[in-house]
Specification:
It is a single chain. 23% of the residues lie in helices and 24% in strands. The protein contains 7 helices and 14 strands. The strands form 4 sheets. Strands 4-3-12-11-10-9 form a 6-stranded mixed sheet. A 4-stranded mixed sheet has the order 1-2-5-6.
Length: 360
């Protein structure tokens, strides 16, 4: 496995789960399809290709029962499909898929086809949840290289336990704070007095921010690395999708509240939800199995609002760390027209943290 932020001695608040990943929430599994081919000048339709697909199963590949969910946008210059029905019903009825901006359609169609073929349609129809961020600075995005086969590979290849980060899946061609970005994850275990111990896990597809904004564990890293070689990029036109999972028994309106707290985690890393950014957050709970029953009456548990603060904290902390993990795991990438986006340099990051006495 690639190094992670904690491996570099960076300290974060809170207690992570076993894998410090969204898959610490029991049942959650994640799969990727990563597409990397071609070098040199952009030839639309041929490449270079630097993209992919990420699939998140709330209850694992073997269980397609809906989960309660809520979502929100910090800034809406982006897309997360299927949210109208989440607002209306309070349920998420399938996997959460992440890809590049121009592949949302093919991913959505492929999910419906997979659900229909495998008997995983909860209703006679489906509203797939597909999130996107723009990878067109490194990837031949108008070549439409993501296919149904890639979607199926991500869906059926999903696993529990530790998962890859950085240049993988939907995060393959992403840029974050002027460095190579991509996929990152983290988790927290929290005790809610009188209720129990719960896990909150986060996965991000990070493609936002400018160099000067980057903050890690309170240190203005972006300003500490002004001379690090990097191409001059236009004003921020990136995005971030944050997926929050928990096993705490929360209702849809509470999960919307949890999703909003992910925006505070983005802010801790320096993100401002800029005009050109799509900062969209989704939260779901794996508790209350059977809540989507066809029976006339469903009985569900709900954590009292007065006890929810530890989950807010865990969401903020996990989102912050997941973004930093994406930066730490990502590797330097050469994309279209030989544009090179450097990885966040680990040695200089360590030096910056030490100057501020913020090593763990």
């Amino acid at each position: 496995m690639k190094p992670r932020a904690r491996d570099l001695g960076i300290g974060f608040a809170g207690t992570p789960g076993r894998f410090d990943a969204i898959t610490d929430v029991p049942g959650v599994s994640v799969g990727y399809a990563t597409i990397m081919r071609g070098e040199g000048p952009l030839v639309v339709g041929d490449g270079p290709v630097r993209t992919g697909v990420t699939a998140i199963h709330p209850r694992g590949l073997g269980c397609h029962e809906p989960v309660l969910a809520g979502w929100c946008a910090l800034n809406g210059n982006g897309e997360l499909t299927g949210t109208t029905w989440i607002d209306e019903s309070g349920f998420l009825e399938g996997p959460v898929m992440l890809t590049n901006t121009h592949s949302v359609g093919v991913v959505s169609a492929a999910v419906v086809a997979w659900q229909a073929r495998t008997g995983r349609l909860f209703q006679p129809y489906s509203y797939p949840v597909v999130g996107e961020t723009y990878d067109g600075r490194l990837n031949d995005i108008n070549g439409f290289h993501v296919t149904a086969a890639h979607v199926l590979a991500a869906i059926e290849g999903a696993t529990e336990g530790p998962i890859a980060e950085g240049n993988v899946g939907g995060g393959t061609g992403m840029i974050c704070f002027g460095f190579k970005g991509g996929t990152g994850t983290a988790s927290r275990r929290v005790e809610v007095p009188g209720a129990g111990i719960y896990t909150v896990g986060v996965l991000v597809q990070a493609n936002f921010g400018t160099r000067d904004q980057l903050v890690i564990a309170g240190v203005p890293v972006g300003r500490e690395l002004p001379d690090d070689p990097s191409p001059v990029l236009p004003a921020e036109q990136g995005s971030i999708i944050v997926v929050v999972a928990t096993d705490a028994p929360l209702l849809a309106h509470q999960l919307e509240r949890v999703a909003r707290r992910a925006g505070l985690g983005i802010g801790r890393t320096g993100g401002i939800g800029g005009n050109g950014s799509g900062d969209i957050m989704l939260a779901f709970s794996t508790a209350n199995l059977g809540a989507a029953t066809a029976d006339p009456l469903a009985r569900i548990e709900m954590l009292a609002n007065s006890r929810i603060n530890p989950l807010f904290d865990a969401t903020i902390q996990s989102t912050e760390e997941a973004i930093v993990n994406a930066l730490v795991a990502a590797e330097t990438m050469r994309g279209i027209d030989d544009l090179v986006i450097p990885a966040l340099p680990h040695d200089r990051l360590r030096e910056a943290m030490a100057r501020y006495r913020r090593r763990a």
